[in-house]
């Protein structure tokens, strides 16, 4: 069962909701975070990206940066910009992006459930990023950003969330990217009813936040070894029903053709795909790809027998990796190879054209998005997706609520 717990959230005073909150730490670099926070001492990037307040060139993973984040968090609390609620509760968080809308429950998930596989993962983590998040969370003394979880939708939970969203929201604003964010505190007996309803959910799945989940587990272990009490056995999460989630494509651009001429590359592709010129870059179905090369689009359709039947082997990202990126272009480890770059679907295929037309990149591939059913099937099978298989949109805003130990 899904064991979710209400908590005493630390969150902005109502008037500062939009002023304080920021995009997640990992969708911007240091320069972008510094520019975003310029002139705003209340920007949450001072906590989640604290190197912005230190001299340029400071190592963002250094002890000084993590200590700066802790000092800034303490300052946000002492200034009264962040306050802790007086009683444990759940929160509801709705996002609107165009016609798309999703509403999730903000709660504490159990580290033990993650460790035991009741919160299932589908990606490998990088040790350097995991180390950094562990130090960040441990130094802060809490989770400043949530893990993005999903579950197979349950009508009874949807009805309870609808009841909770009839109240007046704590925050309701639209950010510079046009995405609406509405946030409610759950009061009264609805908290206990939500807790009980989630007991009927057999499994939770990590949609985004594998490094934060792994770091939460490591922080719990470290603090337990040090004999420290507190709430480190739980971590902050926003839990959305799967039928409201939106996954966009995660596209690829490659710097060169691995010594092949365009003609030779196309000939080799024809051994594995049906290849045709395309008037549009749009792919119509799974196992069909758009390829932008030499100023024009091609459509690639995977031939039967060129991919396996397991949930991971049948992913479009796996088909592209195994039949093109690895076999023809020599990119064996896309996590580390500098000849490849990943482009989130939110940027559109015009960004792929721009990158290739600039001359810095030689070929681009647009993919059909991975589905939530595929993600959960892979997690249930204990398999691991290739890197950069999913791009969830919209992104959760950081700073709306924190969990301090």
Number of strands: 21
Residues in β-strands, percent: 15-25%
Helix content: 25-40%
Distance between the termini: 24 Å
* Oligomeric state of shown chains: single chain
What is the overall silhouette? globular
Whole-number mean pLDDT: 95
Radius of gyration of CA atoms, rounded to a whole number: 22 Å
Task: Report the total helices.
Answer: 13
Task: Characterise this structure.
By secondary structure, the protein is of the alpha+beta class. The protein folds into 2 domains: 256 residues, no CATH class; 119 residues, Conserved hypothetical protein from pyrococcus furiosus pfu- 392566-001, domain 2 (2-Layer Sandwich). 30% of the residues lie in helices and 24% in strands. Strands 1, 4, 5, 6, 8, 9, 10, 11 and 12 form a 9-stranded mixed sheet that branches. A hairpin with a 2-residue loop joins β4 and β5. α4 packs parallel to α6. The longest helix is centred in the first third of the chain and has 16 residues. The mean pLDDT is 95.
Map the helices and strands:
Elements: E1 4-5, E2 10-12, H1 17-20, H2 30-37, H3 45-48, H4 63-78, E3 82-84, E4 91-97, E5 100-110, H5 111-115, E6 119-120, H6 127-140, E7 142-143, E8 147-151, H7 155-164, E9 171-174, E10 180-185, H8 190-198, E11 204-208, H9 210-225, E12 234-241, E13 247-248, E14 250-254, H10 262-269, E15 273-278, E16 288-293, E17 296-302, H11 316-325, E18 340-344, H12 348-357, E19 363-366, H13 372-380, E20 391-392, E21 403-404
Parallel strand pairs: 6-11, 8-12
Antiparallel strand pairs: 1-5, 2-3, 4-5, 4-10, 5-12, 7-21, 8-11, 9-10, 13-20, 14-18, 14-19, 15-17, 16-17, 16-19
